[in-house]
Design goal:
Layout lengths: L19 E3 L11 E3 L6 E3 L8 E6 L7 E8 L11 H13 L4 E6 L4 E2 L5 E9 L2 E12 L2 E10 L5 H13 L1 E2 L1
């Protein structure tokens, strides 16, 4: 794995972005790889409890409630289109989110779209006992693996600067 190099200044456009690339080692049982470019001040870290085949989180050291996460899991279908249209997959994502403990309401922030690369981008707002949060996701299926990028931000802090950061990060994510 390549380390991510983080800088301390949270200004996105003026800093050099650091690319994170996950590639398999010869001893890995499962062979998958992906790349993502988190915002410059973000540092890589692991979740306390692993619930996916592979997962990593990125967050800025001085900001709470703003994270980028990538998960990878094996699947039996060959493409995200086999699972459903962007709208059908978005409905499943929203349903799963609203069924989480402490979530009161979930609404789509934008219409779900299929990217030219064959992935789905879904953006939604979740309102719950821990506050209102905006999620932007990019979902791929490639070579038997489900790749999901999720960016989470407090809705109150989701301004045009953050929106640009999030969109750049989402667009940078892809399996290799």
């Amino acid at each position: 794995m390549c380390p991510i190099i983080a800088t301390s200044n949270p200004v996105f456009a003026a800093e050099e972005q650091q690319v994170y690339t996950r590639t398999p080692s010869p001893s890995d049982k499962f062979k998958f790889s992906y790349t993502v470019t988190p915002p410059p001040s973000f540092e890589a870290g692991n979740k306390p409890l692993k619930t996916h085949l592979d997962e990593i989180n990125f967050s800025p050291p001085d900001v709470r409630g703003y994270t980028v996460g990538v998960t990878v899991d094996p699947v039996r279908i060959g493409s995200i289109q086999e699972f459903g249209t962007p709208e059908e997959v978005a409905a499943r994502v929203v349903t799963a989110e609203v069924n989480r403990d402490g979530v009161f309401e979930v609404t789509l922030a934008k219409d779900p779209v299929e990217d030219a690369a064959g992935c789905y981008d879904i953006e939604y707002i979740s309102d719950g006992k821990r506050g209102k949060k905006r999620f932007s996701t990019r979902i791929y299926i490639k070579d038997g693996f489900l790749y999901v990028l999720t960016v989470q931000s407090k809705e109150a802090e989701f301004d045009t600067v953050r929106e640009k950061e999030v969109q750049q990060t989402v667009k940078s994510f892809r399996p290799l």
